[in-house]
Design brief:
Largest sheet: 7 strands, parallel
Radius of gyration: 18 Å
Shape: globular
Number of domains: 2
Distance between the termini: 37 Å
Strand order of the largest sheet: 3-2-1-4-5-6-11
Order of helices and strands: EHEEHEHHEHEEHEEEHEEHEHH
Bound molecules: NADP nicotinamide-adenine-dinucleotide phosphate
Helix content: 40-55%
Oligomer: single chain
CATH superfamily of the largest domain: NAD(P)-binding Rossmann-like Domain
Strand content: 15-25%
Number of helices: 10
Number of strands: 13
CATH topology of the largest domain: Rossmann fold
Length: 294
Amino acid sequence: MNILITGASGLLGGRIAEYADSRGDSVFSGYLRHHPPFGYPLKLDITSSQSVSEAFRKARPDVVFHTAAITGVDRCEWERDLALQVNVDGTRNVADAARDAGAYLVFLSSDYVFDGSRGLYKEDDARNPVNFLGKTKVIAEDAVRASGARHLIVRTSFIFGSRAARAEANFALWTIRKLKSHIPFRIVADQFVTPTYDRNLVKMLFEVAEKGIEGTLHLAGATRVSKYDFAFSIAKSFGLDWEIIIPSSMSEIGWIAERPVDSSLDTSKAQKMLDNKPMALGDSLKRMREEIPD
Ligand SMILES: NC(=O)c1ccc[n+]([C@@H]2O[C@H](COP(=O)([O-])OP(=O)(O)OC[C@H]3O[C@@H](n4cnc5c(N)ncnc54)[C@H](OP(=O)(O)O)[C@@H]3O)[C@@H](O)[C@H]2O)c1
């Protein structure tokens, strides 16, 4: 299978490229500034339709995993023009090119399309983002639907795993580093998510691509937790001292962008449809523990 990944230098894109490489797929790894760790590197700026066309011409993809985005929640708030250019215009460019090439497009959207007032959101629940990142994802989802490309919109949540993208640690690696420093630190206990183990997500993404599932699907971890409970579970799984984690609240943190209180995703549709099921948090952390030497 010819696979084009946008954002292959990122947290998720890198894992997708690694797995595709291991399967023997032809992997074209789109990147903007950071050289991707796996696949054939392809310089690609999704905000330029010319750059996107060129990448599609080289890769001739059967499947496109579109993960590239401005993902910083606060960054999207203060760099709104950039967030619109990359997350919306860039996605439109990729979707149009996928349509023209007859490729199947998997677009990575986010739990932040929801306002977080209820939690455990299903695919058809009303979107009502509370921050600009979420707004760009809502508009991008609509652009993908309107493009005419054969597509699946995947909403995921709080991705973690044993690999850092570039120098940036994901929440689990950051928490382990903090726990090993033995210096007490604060984690919010009143924000809820469905942490998603990167390798589990990648397996589900390949299954949906192989089956050509279309529409919208929530692919995330199967366990809803507060960020504090997530950090607590990490400490327990890695045999580290959980008592140095101090529960705090969202109001104590000086975030620029508002966060949804409970953006957890209901993954029951994926549980029913897929052989690779959304994993429970305990199982995911056990698998991650096996990947990290002491
Ligand atoms: N991480 C999460 O917890 C989470 C949760 C929900 C949804 N998602 C969604 O999942 C997807 C992947 O997230 P992630 O955390 O893996 O992202 P990430 O690590 O922040 O990586 C973002 C990627 O986008 C690329 N990029 C940025 N601007 C670009 C442009 N103009 N043209 C081409 N590429 C560009 C970056 O390339 P360079 O580094 O080479 O510049 C990088 O590879 C995103 O769409 C995100 O919204 C993630």
